[in-house]
Amino acid sequence: MSVEQRGADTRVLVGYATAHGSTRRIAEEIRDRLISSGLPTDLLAIDAISSIRGYDALVLGSAVQNMAWLPDATTFVQRRTADLAARPVWLFSVSSVGATSSFFGPTVARVMRKMRNEPKNIAEFRRAIQPRDHRAFAGAVDEITGTLPVICSSNSSRVVTR
Ligand SMILES: Cc1cc2nc3c(=O)[nH]c(=O)nc-3n(C[C@H](O)[C@H](O)[C@H](O)COP(=O)(O)O)c2cc1C
């Protein structure tokens, strides 16, 4: 029986790796929405996950630095390739430019979306664990001074949608 058919019997784990808090906030939002949809869902920092036994599906996300997932998140996926490949997995990446949101103004965001590729690890993860999907989100910023974003703190709340 598929995860979609099992509904409330499906236990989901949302795992995240963050440097400055945005990815955790997005992971919390994903967890809340899954629970609202009737799916029992746990939320853990990736470095606090000791086992994925007992979970039927996973949502894993990482902040992006230097066009790659954070080392904790990358290592987590690489060390559990077989276990992850055996389950439905959704991935998300949090950077300065998401699919529909950005730190930057609309023009800069448009140019950056055209120029940039996915984080380096995603192609490897697609081959290794065949995730159901990968989504890109922008992190939040506290304030914008000139053209440079102030990297968000864990309490930042403003995501600019452009
Ligand atoms: C050292 C460093 C490197 C970064 N490299 C990138 C990058 O290569 N591409 C990008 O779009 N954003 C980059 N960013 C922006 C972060 O991805 C963005 O701030 C994101 O919201 C961080 O998520 P977090 O708050 O969960 O750590 C970088 C930020 C830092 C601090």
Structure description:
By secondary structure, the protein is α/β, with parallel strands linked by helices. The protein has a single domain, classed as 3-Layer(aba) Sandwich (Rossmann fold). The protein is built from six helices and eight strands. The chain has helices at 3-6, 22-36, 71-79, 81-85, 106-115, 120-129; strands at 12-17, 41-45, 57-65, 68-69, 89-95, 133-138, 141-145, 148-151. Strands 1, 2, 3, 4, 5 and 6 form a six-stranded mixed β-sheet that branches. Strands 7-8 form a two-stranded antiparallel ribbon. Strand 3 (57-65) and strand 4 (68-69) form a beta hairpin. The N and C termini lie far apart (39 Å). Mean pLDDT is 83; it is low at 144-162. The protein binds flavin mononucleotide (FMN). Flavin mononucleotide binds next to helix 2, strand 3 and strand 5.
What keywords describe this structure?
single chain, 162 residues, alpha/beta, Rossmann fold, 6-stranded mixed beta sheet, two-stranded antiparallel sheet, 8 strands, binds flavin mononucleotide
Question: What structural class do helix, strand and pairing data support?
Answer: alpha/beta
Any ligands, ions or cofactors bound here, and which?
flavin mononucleotide
The run of helices and strands is HEHEEEHHEHHEEE
CATH topology tier name: Rossmann fold
Total beta strand runs = 8
Fourth CATH level, the homologous superfamily: Flavodoxin domain
Radius of gyration: 16 Å
Overall helicity: 25-40%
Q: How many DSSP H or I helices? A: 6
Which class in CATH terms? Alpha Beta
